[in-house]
Design a protein that fits this description.
It is built from eight helices and two strands, in the order ββαααααααα. The protein is mostly helical. It is elongated and about 65 Å long.
């Protein structure tokens, strides 16, 4: 049986998500990001413990893309970076097929500007033109409010720094890689998350006093 994903190689691995046998290459390269793998999949568990060479090379390339924009962050900012990214990657705007890198750049730039302005004692919402970006700003504000209610200590100044790092990553990756969601795809692979709507608050460790 030919792999239904690539249509060229022979399907050798029974995939519970697809419902057919798929080839090892598609299993290794499309796992989680394009295939909605169930958590009890044996291939998924094995790959997380012992990533294949092709997956390891992809991870190394992804880290190389992300590193220039986050290497100056502190440990707290680094943690906050991935918390915010988990919201962004899984956010699905109402009425649209999904986010693109330009939406992410616009939303994070706007929210960072709003936080910086508020730090100077001026309440001003920096405008957002893209409707998906506008929805993402609201989602990020809601997320920050939720984790603060749960006892996390998150300073607006640190959030602004992290948001600008995300903005730089989205713009730079968009300019150097093909596809209008290249940055989102890279982050999704590194976080092992699907591009789908997020739950209210990701179950990850929070920044606490």
């Amino acid at each position: 049986m030919v792999c239904p994903l690539c249509g060229t190689r022979k399907g050798r691995r029974a995939c519970p998500a697809v419902g057919h046998s798929i080839c090892p290459n598609c299993c290794g390269t499309k796992r989680v990001t394009e295939i909605q793998c169930p958590e009890d999949c044996g291939y998924l568990a094995s790959a997380r413990e012992h990533p294949a060479a092709v997956v390891k090379r992809q991870q190394d390339r992804d880290v190389a893309v992300l590193l220039p924009t986050i290497q100056a962050l502190t440990e707290r900012q680094y943690q906050l970076f991935f918390l915010l990214q988990s919201v962004i990657v899984r956010f699905n705007p109402d009425g649209f097929s999904g986010l693109v890198d330009d939406d992410v750049a616009e939303a994070t730039k706007s929210l960072a500007g709003t936080l910086d302005t508020a730090a100077r004692g001026v309440i001003y919402e920096h405008p957002v033109q893209s409707p998906p970006a506008r929805q993402l700003v609201t989602a990020l504000k809601t997320f920050l409010a939720e984790i603060r209610q749960r006892g996390a200590t998150v300073y607006d100044g640190e959030v602004a720094i992290v948001l600008r790092a995300i903005e730089r990553g989205a713009r730079e990756t968009r300019n150097t890689a093909s596809g209008d969601d290249a940055y989102l795809t890279v982050v999704a692979r590194l976080l092992h998350q699907r591009r789908e709507p997020a739950a209210s608050v990701p179950e990850q460790s929070l920044i606490v006093p």
